[in-house]
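Checklist before submission:
- one chain only
- standard amino acids only
- sequence pasted in full

Submission:
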Amino acid sequence: MKSYRKELVYNVPSRRAFINITDEVQTCVDESEIKEGLVLVNAMHITASVFINDDESGLHHDFENWLEKLAPEKPYSQYKHNGFEDNADAHLKRQIMGREVVVAITHGRLDLGPWEQVFYGEFDGKRPKRVLVKIIGE
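Returned file contents:
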């Protein structure tokens, strides 16, 4: 069995964003030369997420509104975590959206459903953060 590891780095200029990283993950699969296996894609920071969903701007707007209702950024004083940092809401949003995804690789391609795409979700941006891509297979 072969394995491959790569870190992708994102530096989102805003506090929050959803970035389609499907093509970058597929590039990693291509580089690995693994034709049958699994790819793990996970955010290596506790205020960021990796998830699978549709690449549709209205849905992303809905995610933003829904997450802000569940874990509003302000007032900062509503969270015990906030003291030195003001990112308690980002920790909660990450918990909801998830840490990682695992995708099958079939014939050297990500084996995703018709509308599925892989996304990086940033909830406390303005600094570089890493995403791990780990691939195993043959």
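Reviewer check: The chain has a mean pLDDT of 97.
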